[in-house]
Design a protein that fits this description.
2 helices, alpha+beta, about 140 residues, Ubiquitin-like (UB roll)
Length: about 140
């Protein structure tokens, strides 16, 4: 499932204008990627250029039960470095984020957090935020 949520305000985002690096810590392993503006968006879930979009475009699993439309909190991530380069969280995102376990000051929903490319970013996918049961592709 993917698309937009007609019940929320669209966040103000600034897409990157130059390449930047993002490191995503998943299952204890770092995945360092160069994000190029001309490659965005990668997929169809979450905001264009969002952490979820970047993960999907680079085969890094980030759970997103609602399809990236701010209707759940399963794509909760922790932005360890570079949070200042990301769009501000909307009230709708903050409301959904309250449902996620393990919240910290720099928690965000991966579907809504869009780095603008002005600095490198380090993101952690919390260990509890993995679906132990994965469906196989048809």
């Amino acid at each position: 499932m993917a698309g937009t949520n007609p019940y929320i305000d669209t966040p103000e985002i600034e897409l990157p204008r130059k390449p930047y690096q993002i490191t995503i810590l998943s299952e204890g392993r770092p995945h360092t990627l160069t994000v190029r503006p001309e490659d965005l968006p990668y997929q169809r879930s979450g905001q264009p250029g969002s952490i979820l979009d970047i993960c999907e475009g680079n085969d890094i699993h980030l759970e997103h039960t609602c399809g990236g439309v701010v209707a759940c909190s399963t794509c909760h991530v922790i932005v360890r470095e570079g949070l200042a380069s990301c769009n501000e969280a909307t009230e709708d995102e903050e409301d959904q984020l309250e449902e996620a376990p393990g919240l910290v000051r720099n928690s965000r929903l991966g579907c809504q957090c869009v780095p603008n490319g002005t600095m490198d970013v380090l993101v952690e996918i919390p260990g509890w935020n993995r679906n132990a049961v994965q469906e196989t592709p048809h």
